[in-house]
Amino acid sequence: MPRIGFRAHDFGSFDSADALGRRVAQTRCPAFIQLALKKVIPSCRPWQEWDEEYISSMAASLKAHGVSVAIVGCYINPIHPDEEKRKDEIRRFRRSLSLTGAFGCPIVGTETGTASAAGGYSIATSDPRNIEIFKESLSQMLDEAEKDDAYVAIEAVARSHSISSAQRMGKILDSFGTDRLKVILDPVNLIPYAGIPESDGVPLEVPTEEAERSFIRDILDIYGDRIAAIHCKDYRLDPETGFKIGDLPALTGCFRWQAFAEELRSRAIDVPWLLENHDPSTAGRTAETLERF
Known about the structure:
Elements: E1 3-7, H1 17-27, E2 31-35, H2 37-40, H3 52-63, E3 67-73, H4 83-98, H5 100-103, E4 107-111, H6 128-148, E5 151-155, H7 166-175, E6 181-185, H8 187-190, H9 209-223, E7 227-232, E8 234-237, E9 244-248, H10 257-266, E10 272-275, H11 283-290
Parallel strand pairs: 1-2, 1-10, 2-3, 3-4, 4-5, 5-6, 6-7, 7-10
Antiparallel strand pairs: 8-9
Helix pairs in contact: 1-3, 4-6, 7-9, 9-10
């Protein structure tokens, strides 16, 4: 049975961890979340001022409401084209790693970055040089993880990020011989923008179950036991453009989440699922449905 949690900032913005904890507990208690602190509590201290006492107090406020942290979200741009800004991004991630004990969660997650300084799409992102830059950044993050008994979890995104396919992710995983490197699997993020191809290479508006299962099995063959968490949302293809609309709440698009759950179970992969892009008023019911899969 999947274990379902939430992305904290989908509940909105709050002025304290106590207020966040109260709101999450209204949907589910006990509960677990992915916590990107600045996104959900904009008034929190700058990351440079975070320390054990401050973060521990945040975690304690959440725990008082039955809410724990499953992933610390620190979504940086590890291939930022400005070297000084890139170094600052890595320092921010390393600070989160150093405080995993205070968060009560050993895993810090990030995506893999874009060559756009503004954070959007850039055709330059796929350049092999950016893969090397990403590996340089990741090496520094993993050095910190080793020191802090923590884990770095990276998430691939089709087309727009430096690690844009399961195959590219596989090469990264093979490059680092440490169990400190994990992955966050968002299957919708990995679906190509034109959809999942059928056996003849052509995508359909809704892929056949055979094509979707093959796509997922190929990913899981690569990711294996490195998966730290699942991001759970949905998608459909735009009937006008044919391109993926990939930010729908789970169970409102065409992804077969029950078949996905069955595939995970057959491989004994039991990790937290975190709902994304959900409506807090219906998140509890969505979680209950998914947990029956």
